[in-house]
Design goal:
Layout: H1 3-14, H2 16-21, H3 30-36, H4 65-89, H5 96-101, H6 108-125, H7 137-147, H8 150-163, E1 168-174, E2 180-186, E3 201-207, H9 214-217, H10 221-228, H11 234-245
Helix pairs in contact: 4-6
The protein binds manganese (II) ion (MN).
Manganese (II) ion (MN) binds near residues 209 and 212.
Length: about 250
Amino acid sequence: MNDSNNSRRDFLRKSSFLALAGLGTQLFSSSILKAAGGSGLNSHAEFTLPPLPYAYDALEPHIDKMTMEIHHDKHHMAYVTNLNKAVAEGNIHATLEELIFNASKYSMPVRNNAGGHWNHSFFWKIMKPGGGGVPSGKIAEAINASFVSFDEFKTKFNDAAMKRFGSGWAWLAVDANGKLAIGSTPNQDNPLMDVSDFKGTPIMGIDVWEHAYYLKYQNKRADYVGAWWNLVNWEEVAANLNLAGKK
Ligand code: MN
């Protein structure tokens, strides 16, 4: 273990960003530590695919098993693979959060694939089987303070998800004033990126790329978004809010 590895680990431990995403050190395989202490060549961070926190069919009937298999094993995997390729080709030594925060400094392949990796790692965790319903506690208070009522919040979030033209995401984020805000981003951008028009710390988000719903819902994005509310992991969203408030 050399100094640079120690500082990398310290950074990961202290980073509320990673804690927020629930990613922690699992983003980095142990091979990166070995590689960095080895030949000195090819010592780029190796990003890895996090496992789904539930079975592929656990979100049925709202999201079908085959969609989850393809979405996680193929789409998310491809973002990870292509991110590793892009940082190797660009000789970039940076953590995932550095790539995201400073997206404007990097190539489109880095921006798209770092975003894809972060967004999906986040997305899996804010869903769970038997989720949904109306939240209580601090998250409910924060929603009511910003949007008057849960119903109005839901309407506004659905609107953001529906009006995002083409591929992208809708988000609930904590803005610079500490208030909750709803917005959307194109492609694999997210509100943490310096290039994003909508900025904040995401605490909840929905993938509205067609690959997230097309097998079951075809062109009916509204039906997918409506069903998705049955999966929201409010405990995770509340934990994200708590972490975002402590930044
Ligand atoms: Mn996706």
